[in-house]
From TrEMBL:
InterPro entries named in the record: Homeodomain-like_sf, HTH-type_TetR-like_transc_reg, HTH_TetR, Tet_transcr_reg_TetR-rel_C_sf, Tscrpt_reg_YsiA_C
Protein's UniProt keywords contain Coiled coil: yes
Protein name per Swiss-Prot or TrEMBL: TetR family transcriptional regulator
Listed GO MF terms: DNA-binding transcription factor activity; transcription cis-regulatory region binding
Keyword DNA-binding set for record: yes
Highest taxon, organism lineage: Bacteria
Lineage start: Bacteria, Bacillati, Bacillota, Bacilli, Bacillales
Portion annotated as DNA-binding: 28-47
Gene3D superfamilies: Homeodomain-like, Tetracycline Repressor, domain 2
HTH tetR-type domain span: 5-65
Coiled coil regions, renumbered to chain: 105-132
Length: 194
């Protein structure tokens, strides 16, 4: 399969840099090829078009990220601890890759409706992990029994996502990973005084 070949990864990594630096609409396939160190035509051996590159980029990067999250939380019995690890790993992953953070937080959101729907398909697996943590938390009594799982997932993902977007928009001027604990505490303890 093409995805297993080194040039596929090279092109994906190059696309992340080019899209982050020039924006999706200005990221020509020729710029991606140049960044990857391959001929323009080589791109088309792996991808149909620029949209396919963007979708593949998100599938690859998000797929790898989800696998890491699943591995990290596999041996943890406490749903609360699993949630903390998820928040922290999300922040660490994007803090370590500035270009990927720009692409996921800004460029993917400017794409057309069909592209966003395909991206949402990839996100479903990540959202299922959040759902499973919440369900398990309710079952084990670590989370409130009256939680609406769908709404809770939206709030968790929304808080994580907005924190990263704000960090990107502020040109990463502060430590994103340092916000993992405060975000986790706000998600688990809310705003009440006790």
């Amino acid at each position: 399969m093409r995805r297993d070949k080194p040039k596929f990864k090279q092109i994906i990594d190059a696309a992340v840099v080019v899209i982050a630096e020039h924006g999706y609409h200005q990221a020509q396939v020729s710029k991606i090829a140049k960044q990857a160190g391959v001929a323009d035509g080589t791109i088309y051996l792996y991808f149909k078009n620029k949209e396919d590159i963007l979708i593949s980029l998100f599938q690859e990067k998000m797929g790898s990220f989800i696998e890491k999250i699943e591995q990290e939380i596999a041996g943890i019995s406490s749903p609360l601890e699993k949630l903390y690890v998820l928040v922290k790993k999300h922040f660490e992953s994007l803090a370590q890759d500035h270009h990927l953070a720009v692409v996921t937080q800004l460029e993917l959101r400017q794409s057309n409706k069909e592209l966003r729907q395909r991206i949402n398909e990839v996100l479903k697996r990540y959202l299922r992990i959040i759902d499973e943590i919440v369900k398990e938390g309710i079952e084990k009594g670590e989370f409130r029994r009256d939680l609406d799982i769908r709404l809770t997932r939206q709030m968790i993902f929304g808080a994580i996502d907005e924190t990263v977007t704000t960090w990107v928009m502020n040109e990463q001027k502060y430590d994103l990973v340092a916000l993992a604990k405060p975000v986790y505490e706000l998600l688990t303890k809310g705003c009440a005084s006790s």
